[in-house]
Every structure is written in structure tokens, then in C-alpha cells.
Amino acid sequence: MIGLVLAVAIAGWGGAQDPASAPQDPASKPQDPASKPQDPASKPQEPTPAAPSPQAAAPTPPPAAPAIPIPTFEFSAAFDQAAFEAALGKIAEAFPDLMHVRSLGKSRGGRDLWLAVLADAETGETRKLPAAVVVTDLAAARPAGPQAALFVLESLLVRARRDPVLRERLRRCAVYFLPAPDPDLAFGAEIPEARSSRLEQNFPARWLPFGPDVRSPGPYALSEPESRTLARFLLERENLSTLVVLSRAAEELPNDGAGSAPGAAAPAPGSLRAYGREVLDLALVESRPWTGDVARTELGNAPHGFEAAAALVENALDGLPRLACRPAQVERLRPDLWLVDVALENSGMLPTLGADSRRPRIPSVSMTLTGARLVACALREAGSPTFTPLPDGRERSGMLPIGHLDGLSTLDVRLVVQAEEGATPSVTFTSARAGLSGATTTLH
């Protein structure tokens, strides 16, 4: 039954998926065609008496399909593997337009590593959207179950269905959820004997081969299938800017479930936190949701900190870098030569690329121009009185490197283009982390 629920949830995603999601889990069961809800319009209609005249009444549209009730769970209780997979499947079934699930692979013990992607299905390719990832902590001292991640996931889905502002935000960004990145430890009676390390010390970031417990870091970095799968998943998604860790460890975090900004203390060697911050240049956000008394919510009973963690993740979406263009301004220089000014801004709090990861001649923002010939380009940062000419370093693809934008910053882009009057050139700015934005204008 659990496999069927997840298979239905996977098959029910209507939008274009992440390219890596094309291969489906071989264990997934195909959906029984008979179990699909029928479109009311496709049902045979009873014959109706002829109308007195063709203009008497317009045809009545078929009634909308009833919304699936919000699933509720006992989030204050421990989840075994069956309860976790059933809950994940029910949530996906209730929100097919905003969520899809798939397995990234298998753990050492043969359990699925489930991924849930939260994004509006109509936006299409999720890898082109600014994104954050929410991961349950891998700390082995006291494993954190998937309850907090499931609560945060469902809370965002419920709010997005009711709040048009959040729904619009999910058209412009994506959130990846890994509720149980170590299912063997979360659901198994004991760690598999074949495991050679603690996952939290097995990532390639200041990985140490020696220590008090030689089995902790493992024989080499990413020696375990779970850490290897998670590291590859994060590395392949260049649209990621933020890593949210739902922790149960007794760290120096506020005791209300709210998170901390990137802390002063460096992450432990070989940890997921170190890999995210130091290798992938992700903003690290910590939350400790297992705090406070258990309270009744519309999603079910849950510790007070779960709601604070959901608010934290929602706020993190506002911080994601996001490119935006203002309308272009046009000035005629000669009969076929034009000056086009475009103001490009990063409306998010995070930069298009962190300062420590920036390299010469490797920009995080690029530009393409269509509909006119580019003669020259110059840039002016906010507060600067003059424009700086930009060398023509266009790649074969026609993309011109622009550089980087810090959070909440603006860059004035001045173009000299050649085209006949009435032409409609389009300029498009692209960033792996901040998405794309553009402007089209008519030359007259």
C-alpha cells in the first residue's frame, strides 16, 4: 500500500520535472488506471430536454473536483519507515500541483533515500529556479526523525494553497526536502555492520582520516552510499543557495525552534555543514525544531518548535538571490544606432555567488542580446557616477559575462546596439543561482 501511494504521488506530478528525476524507482508500482479520479466532463451525461431556444441558456460547466482534505499526523510520535513513507505519499497526493517525490537511491541497508520537491508545477524546470534544500540532521548521537521535515513541508504546501503571495513565490523558486537522509539510522534497529563511518564525518570538506575513533570518518570521503548520493545531489544543483539543517543536537541555538544565521563556529570537519558552506558556498541555516510543548495544529499534534521551523524556511525563501529587470530606456544616437539602458537588480538578500567562490573571468551573471547587433556594453554599480566599459568576451553561445551581484544590489547596464527603427531587441540576464530575467523594447 505504501509503495502504491508513493507511486501515485510520483506519477501524479503534472509539470516538467528535474532532468535527474526521469528514471523512476524500479520498485515503484504502476498506478492502476482504474484508481484514477475521472474527469467529471468525461462521464456520460444524462440526456436533457431540448431548450426552448438556442439562446435560452449557456451550458453549465462541469463541477470542479473536490479538494483532497489536508492530511493530519501525530508529529510528536516516532515515525517508522512505513509511517514515514505513507505520510510522504499522502502529502504528495494532496498537493499534486505543488510537490513531487522520487527516490535518489538506496541506503547501505537497502532503504530508499526519498526526495520531495516543492515548486509550482507550471514553472517547469526546477533546476532553473533559485532554490534551498532542507535536510534532517545526520548527527548520529541522537538521530532526528523525519517528522520536522514533513511538518515544514506540509505547512508550506497548505499556506501556498491559501496565500497567493507564497504561491507566487513558489513560481519563482524551489525547495528540496530530504526528510530521512539516513534511513538506516532513523528507522533501523541498528546501524548496518557494513557501514564504515559516521555519515556526518564522511563528506569531502576538511575530511580527517585519523581521529579518536578511526571508524568515524571512514576509509575515504564519501565511502558510504548515503553521503555519496547526497553530496552528488547537492553538487549537481547549481541553483542552490541555502542549506537548512533541522537539528536535534544541543547546539547554541535559540530555544524556540528558530534558526541561526551562519554561525561563528566553523562546522565540524567532514560534516554536511562543512561541505555545504565551504565547498558549495551555501548559506547555512540551523534550526532546532524539537523544542517546546506539544500543541495541537491543523496538521496534527507537534512540538511548538515545528511551527517556528516552518516560518524559518519560508523566510529563507525571501533571502534567495533573484534577478529582476526594470523596463529598458531607449535613446537614438544615429538612424540605426541606439543607446539602451537596463537596470538589473538582485532582489534577494544572498549574492549571486559568495565572495569566497568568485574567480576572475568566471561570472555568476551573463547576458544575451537578440534582435539587434551589440556594438558595446558598459556597467555602472550603484553609487558610481560613471560607466565602465565591458570587454567583449562573448562565448560561442553568444553569452556576455556580466559579473556578480551582491544581495539587494543594482547594476546599470548600458548597451549600444545597431538595428533598424521598429526592431524589438531583447536582453536576457541569466544566473545559475538567481534565475533569469530580461527586458524587450521597441526601437523608435
Structure description:
This protein has 444 residues and is of the alpha+beta class. It has 2 domains: 2-33 and 66-319, Zn peptidases (Aminopeptidase), CATH 3.40.630; 323-440, Sandwich (Immunoglobulin-like), CATH 2.60.40. The chain is built from 8 helices and 18 strands. The strands form 4 sheets. It has a 6-stranded mixed beta sheet with strand order 1-2-4-3-5-6, with helices on both faces. Strands 9, 10, 11, 13, 14 and 16 form a 6-stranded antiparallel beta sheet that branches. A hairpin with a 5-residue loop joins strand 1 (99-106) and strand 2. The radius of gyration is 25 Å and the shape is elongated. The protein starts with a helix and ends with a strand. 41% of the residues are buried. Mean pLDDT is 83; it is low at 19-59 and 250-264.
List the helices and strands and how they pair.
Elements: H1 2-11, H2 81-94, E1 99-106, E2 112-118, E3 131-136, H3 147-162, H4 164-171, E4 174-178, H5 183-187, H6 225-236, E5 240-246, H7 272-279, E6 283-287, E7 294-297, E8 300-303, H8 304-319, E9 323-325, E10 329-334, E11 337-346, E12 365-370, E13 373-381, E14 388-389, E15 400-403, E16 409-418, E17 426-431, E18 435-440
Helix pairs in contact: 1-2, 3-4, 3-8
